[in-house]
Prior knowledge:
By secondary structure, the chain is α+β, with helices and mostly antiparallel strands. It contains five helices and four strands. The chain is rod-shaped and about 125 Å long. The two termini are 35 Å apart.
Amino acid sequence: MPEQKKMKTIELAKRKVASELSKIVxxxxxxxxxIADLEERLNHYQEKTVEVQASASERxxxxxxxxxxxxxxxSLAKRIEKAEFDLGPLHESLDRLQLAERNARFTADRxxxxxxxxxxxxxxxxxxxxxxxxxxxxxRVRRWWPTxxxxxxxxxxxxxxxxxxxxxxxxVGNIPSICRVKLQPALFxxxxxxxxxxxxxxxxxxxxxxxxxxxx
Length: 216
């Protein structure tokens, strides 16, 4: 059934999307950790800057202290500038990964919906096919079985049980319609020149070698 093939295709797509989503989520979490670490350092540098500036009034105003103060503030300013600079690309990466994650989750949801609808169609069509099988089976019993001689009926019934209802096949050219094993020339000759209903030499189902209208 086409729904079965479609469900396999959807399942493969779901696995691929799930794998990509797992990678994206992992990368997004890594970037979030990097941002959190960097923002923590940035806050530390900013707090330290305030502390150094506040301590300036408590220090003795001489050349050495002034030079030390300027050195500390310059060093902190450079660290703050670098941290702010590094945060830019990280936030850009985070934005891209969040967008990719939303798209992947959206695709996964769409695939889930498509799988559900396809499965429902498969189940509905399966029920219709089962219903048709029952109807055809009943019609076969009602219309054709009364016309079959007891000699043919008994092996047909036993094979119907053994092969789950698929007891009779047709000879199409030199190939049986169910087992599909090509007949050797000698076997084909024997079947084509034998009775209209015989036994398949390969699968042992009943095999019709002529059209119904030719042997009724």
